[in-house]
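Researcher: Hi, I'm a grad student and pretty new to this. My advisor asked me to get structures for two proteins we've been looking at. I'm not sure of the right format, so I'll just paste the first sequence and hope you can take it from there.
Model: That works fine. Here's the first sequence with its structure tokens right after it:
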Amino acid sequence: MRSSLALLAVAATLATGAAHAADYAVDPTHTFVTFEIGHFNTSTNRGRFDKKEGTIQFDRAARTGKVDITIDVASVSTGTAAFDKHLNSADLFNTAVHPKARFVSDKLVFNGDKVVEVPGQFTFMGKTAPLTLKAVRFNCYDNPMLKREVCGGDFEAVVDRTVYGMDYAIAFGVPKDVRLVIQVEAVRQ
């Protein structure tokens, strides 16, 4: 009986020790932060931020994790230089004063083994507000080229830009809601 209890105690200790968060580095070549906003109910303006970095801690067994992603807002790219210049101006992103945005979370919401939501805080234009990213797709795989595990997916949220003080063109009918999509892959370190 004592040996059975001792074995159970050792097994419990090993099981507890096996569950630990692994560190992942955001892969900038497979990570994109894009946005979409309606343009006078006619078309959709789209853009992306070319520079981003971040770290993720992830423990699938314990269903826990942390996310920290920084976006270089001044790296905005729409394919039109004049529009990029206007987006960087004080009218909109005001990147001379607020060159970075940051999403931080210390919680992942799971359904089984899949991450379905990442509630956190988004700092943009000097203001921080709650933001929950919904997972549209999530997966981990062994990358045959890197010989390491890679986890990631597509995460989306609708952001009310007026919360961050971006009121430009609201009076003209440009919507306040912006669709934010973060396509991320992170490599286990």
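Researcher: Oh nice, that was easy. Here's the second one.
Model: And its structure:
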Amino acid sequence: MKIFIGADHRGQELKDKLKNYLLENGFDVKDSTIPSHEGDDYPDFAYEICNQVLKEDGLGILLCGTGIGMSIAANKIKGIRCAKVNNENEAFLAKSHNAANVIALSYKLTLDAAIPIVDMFIATKPASEERHLRRIEKINKIENNTYTL
């Protein structure tokens, strides 16, 4: 499984550390091709990484100031379910209940705090229980503008 990772200038340092950690642990990691610099725009990174996630059926990790902007931008891309997560439990629930294929993190996390979150996200199986699948289908209908109450 490929893991795509991208960050704006604020998340660059933590992104590089997470990328090295993942590579050292045998993961196939693809970094953003967009140069990071002061004044860059997080939607650019979200767009690039999320499209790669969809194209190659991988997982994505996005980092910015809070993770909120990245998650909002990512969720505008059809087929992406991005969760802004702060801890391992949220990473687990995002994937096991909502089949998240991307997570967004704040650059303010330490590497020691980010690693268990990323490990949990990668290791967790996507949603499979009927109630979660039903809810994901409703989200897909909202995304496709076919949802009705």
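Researcher: Is there anything I should tell my advisor about the second?
Model: You could mention this: The first strand starts at residue 2 and ends at 7.
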